[in-house]
Design goal:
By secondary structure, the protein is α+β, with helices and mostly antiparallel strands. Among the domains are: 107 residues, no CATH class; 87 residues, Immunoglobulin-like (Sandwich), CATH 2.60.40; 61 residues. 46% of the residues lie in helices and 13% in strands. The protein is built from 27 helices and 27 strands. The strands form 8 sheets. A 5-stranded antiparallel β-sheet has the order 13-14-19-16-17, with no helix packed on it. Strand 21 and strand 22 form a beta hairpin. The longest helix has 28 residues.
């Protein structure tokens, strides 16, 4: 007689695994030798093929001319993957700890962990650099397919059943609404889709009291990929563990042992990631703060509408759906009497509590690590989709009755009808519910009939695979099309002739570390310095330090995203301060670029004595002079006229000098000398107005849409180019005679007998240590030169790296000791087999 646990019944059926094949000499083959990758492979193929088919249907690059990169995919992920390519191929200015490209030198370890942690990101280094963007796009279907494959394995751990049925439902998970609508362009988040079933398998091993080292490694693998979604997947794994502890037939002692194994393995796995996790956590704490708003749950009808198949609601709303096949099966779960009542009640209650927690602010903060998400607040939606697929599998594995399936399908149609007037109700939702749901119901009925008529099972298989593939392709294409209509998600190019020419122009004037090269404007991404191998201020990262913001913002550099994105400024004084000796600009012909080289001080200069600008302290021009150490501007009084929206400004400067403008509060259009320039408030830094005419009058007209704002008291500064040239010559003559830059270090050779303060042209971000005590010089790194010193060096070490490495070493030692002890026990002649027990022990 077969032992019955709380997750199965004594009734056998066609959903159970096929009988074990006999080997001619070995008899029955063990489970590990009988395992076949058919189910995971099927799930991978359905998922990746459906997603790529949506690209084909939309004519999206590389299957058409429609841009693929949206929002941060273009501005962050592609540039960071190009930086990874440079790093691996030995062409980076920096290393994994630090990059000299962007932000005048920034930490890179936290950016690597956050943006490049997905293991499939390394696909980008296997292709030519010109095709890195294509590799980044390929990460999405590959990761989604992998998640579907791992979910297929996890479903088999929960309950045995035909590989193709598990594969189809695994694809339902890999093609869930969160993956298609929220994370399809975010490669590192997609690893959370893999982490959830991966940790589910780890939970099963803990319950079976097997493979403690494997559990720890699975936890580490989940957290190495991306800590943000891994944290959500880990919380979901805690829910799965609690469910299984309640529903499995176990003694109290067995439950305690399972809890102990899970907690120790999880702790060890997370400690293994601490060299990345701890520096990232500390970097986040020192990053420029953002003004994220409080969580406000969406209206209940919108929340429920997010569960309907092929629905893509606008904005930060939940995308909770899976294909209609999964929804119909999950809906029949409670009706299935072949499943033990306790199992049905516990799984259903847990799923409802999880989805309800998405609407409750305190639990939402818990899901997001006690932080307010800056963007879509429903980033944990994949957890609910995963649980829905589990319910669908448990229902399917226990042969749901056609009447129950029909009832669930009818409820789905009724719910769609009730929610049809929700804001921006998806145009493909009705076809997915009626057609997809109808075909799904037909396939399941045919499958039930196949218990007596085996020839019908292939028909049901084809229908189930086909409906998930077709419905998910339509859902993916619809989500892509609807999202692209939003202003923030307008697709842009990440490779074309102009970008290639821009890259070539930057390379032609490369002089690092003798001087920096600014890639100029217009930018093709917010991280052009990384993407084009330049060393300008352009940088966009969630970890951009507050210290960098405090150093660059007062100098007239434009920024956005609350200061986590900085742009360049074509200003010769700023060039001199930050050792910029070359700049690229657009050429006269379309899609062409020119370059210019000019004298620049070295990266390390020497200042003697003190200097204070004679101009008003609140002027951007005075702040630039304080860093330069010389008076090079004339800052005149301005006369303001006009109206609130049509403002005029007039000032008198020395004829022949160069006029500059700075008005961070105004958004509109500036007109001077017959030329127009756009003003985008804080995104627009210091801009050139051209040479001052012979009459010395600087006249500016501003048409603005910013109510109640003006250009301030000192928007105009007139540069004396001869004075600037003198200052640059002085800084070159007294500054470092030789500068070498390592991956995360810099060394300067100073003139003999140099005294005063050595100023490094890099912002004083946390982590710099120099051979002399570091002090802040108007936001830059500086040291007082010790007597008799002609060499200075500084090294950057991310805060938290050393304790993180120590903790990881301890975890690795523990993992090795446990593994070795386990191997030694197995080699003893009297050692037991250590096989698992209970339902779901097999794969």
């Amino acid at each position: 007689m077969r032992t019955v646990t709380s997750e199965t019944t004594a009734t056998d059926g066609p959903v159970l695994p096929s009988p074990r094949r006999r080997h001619p000499r070995l008899g029955r083959l063990p489970d590990r030798l009988r395992a076949r990758p058919y189910g995971p492979l099927l799930a991978f193929l359905i998922t990746s093929a459906a997603f790529c088919s949506a690209w084909v249907a939309r004519g999206t690059f590389p299957f058409g001319n429609t841009g693929r990169a949206i929002n941060d995919q273009a501005n962050q992920y592609v540039p960071f993957h190009r930086a990874l390519w440079d790093l691996v191929h030995g062409q980076a200015a920096g290393d994994v700890l630090f990059t000299w490209r962007g932000g005048f030198g920034q930490q890179f370890l936290s950016d690597y962990y956050t943006y490049l942690g997905n293991p499939f990101s390394w696909l980008a280094v296997l292709v030519p650099r010109a095709h890195v963007d294509l590799a980044v796009f390929a990460i999405t279907p590959v990761t989604m397919g992998t998640a579907a494959a791992v979910m297929t394995v996890y479903l088999g751990k929960l309950h045995p059943g035909p590989w193709w049925q598990r594969g189809v439902l695994g694809a339902c998970y890999g093609l869930c609404g969160w993956a298609l609508s929220d994370a399809s362009y975010i490669p590192m988040w997609l690893w959370g889709l893999v982490a959830l079933p991966l940790l589910g398998i780890a939970v099963e091993w803990c319950l079976e009291e097997r493979r403690w080292p494997g559990v720890a490694l699975f936890v580490a693998l989940a957290w190495f990929g991306n800590f943000y979604t891994a944290m959500m997947a880990t919380m979901a794994a805690c829910v799965l563990l609690a469910i299984r502890l309640i529903t499995r037939d176990m003694t109290g002692r067995q439950r305690l042992r399972a809890l102990w194994r899970a907690s120790t393995a999880a702790g060890t796995g997370i400690l293994l990631t601490l060299p990345l996790l701890l520096p990232s956590f500390l970097s986040s704490g020192s990053a420029q703060p953002t003004q994220a708003g409080a969580f406000e749950p969406v209206r209940i009808e919108l929340f429920l509408a997010g569960m309907l198949p092929a629905t893509h609601l606008w904005g930060g709303r939940p995308r909770l759906y899976v294909a209609s096949l999964g929804l119909i099966l999950a809906g029949s779960f409670l009706f299935n009497a072949a499943i033990a009542r306790r199992t049905r009640l516990v799984w259903a209650a847990a799923t409802l509590l999880v989805v309800a927690s998405f609407q409750f602010p305190p639990t939402q903060y818990v899901w997001h690590g006690l932080a307010v998400p800056n963007g879509n607040p429903y980033r944990e939606a994949f957890v609910f989709s995963g649980m829905v697929v589990v319910l669908a599998w448990l229902a399917l594995a226990h042969r749901p009755r056609p009447l129950h399936l029909a009832l669930t399908a009818a409820l789905l149609v009724a719910a769609t009808f009730v929610l049809r007037r929700a804001d921006d109700f998806g145009g493909w939702t009705w076809p997915a519910v009626l057609v997809g749901g109808g075909v799904s119901l037909l396939a399941l009925v045919i499958l039930a009939l196949g218990e007596k008529r085996r020839y019908l099972i292939p028909v049901a298989a084809v229908l189930m695979v086909g409906v998930v593939f077709a419905e998910s392709t339509v859902a993916a294409a619809s989500a892509d099309a609807r999202r692209s209509r939003e202003r923030w998600a307008k697709p842009v190019a990440t490779s074309n002739g102009s970008i290639n020419a821009h890259f070539d122009a930057v390379r032609q004037v490369d002089g690092w570390p003798a001087y920096r090269t600014d890639s100029g404007a217009p930018q093709s991404s917010y991280n052009d310095a990384l993407a084009l191998r330049a060393e300008g201020p352009q940088y966009y990262s969630s970890y951009l330090p507050e210290a960098t913001y405090q150093a660059l913002e007062p100098l007239g550099y434009g920024f956005k995203n609350d200061g986590r994105t900085f742009f360049g400024a074509d200003n010769p004084v700023l060039d001199a301060i930050f050792s910029i000796g070359a700049r690229v600009r657009p050429g006269a012909a379309p899609h062409t670029w020119t370059h210019e080289k000019f004298p620049a001080p070295p990266l390390v200069t020497v200042r003697t004595g003190s200097y204070a600008s004679p101009h008003p302290a609140d002027s951007v021009y005075a702040r630039q002079e304080n860093l330069l150490g010389a008076t090079v501007y004339q800052v005149p009084q301005v006369t303001r006229g006009g109206t609130a929206t049509e403002q005029t400004y007039a000032a008198q400067c020395t004829p022949g000098s160069e006029a500059y403008w700075f008005s961070p509060e105004l958004y509109g259009t500036l007109t001077t000398g017959g030329a127009q320039k756009p003003l985008e408030d804080r995104m627009t830094g210091v801009i050139s107005l051209g040479k001052v005419p012979a009459d010395g009058e600087v006249a500016v007209a501003v048409r603005t849409r910013t109510e109640g704002a003006t250009a301030g008291e000192h928007p105009v500064g007139c540069l004396d180019r001869a004075a600037l040239d003198t200052a640059i010559t002085s800084l070159k003559s007294t500054g470092a005679t030789r500068v070498t830059a390592g991956g995360h270090s810099i060394e300067a050779t100073l003139p003999k007998g140099a005294t005063g303060t050595a100023v490094f042209a890099m912002t004083d971000v946390p982590g710099w240590q120099c051979t002399a005590p570091v002090r802040n010089f108007h936001g830059l790194v500086a040291t007082d030169i010790p007597a008799g010193t002609d060499k200075l060096s500084c090294t950057f070490t991310p805060k938290g790296l050393r304790p993180g490495l120590a903790a990881a070493a301890l975890a690795l030692l523990t993992l090795t000791a446990v593994t070795v002890a386990g191997l030694r026990r197995r080699r003893r002649p009297d050692a037991g087999t250590g096989t698992g027990t209970g339902a779901g022990a097999g794969a």
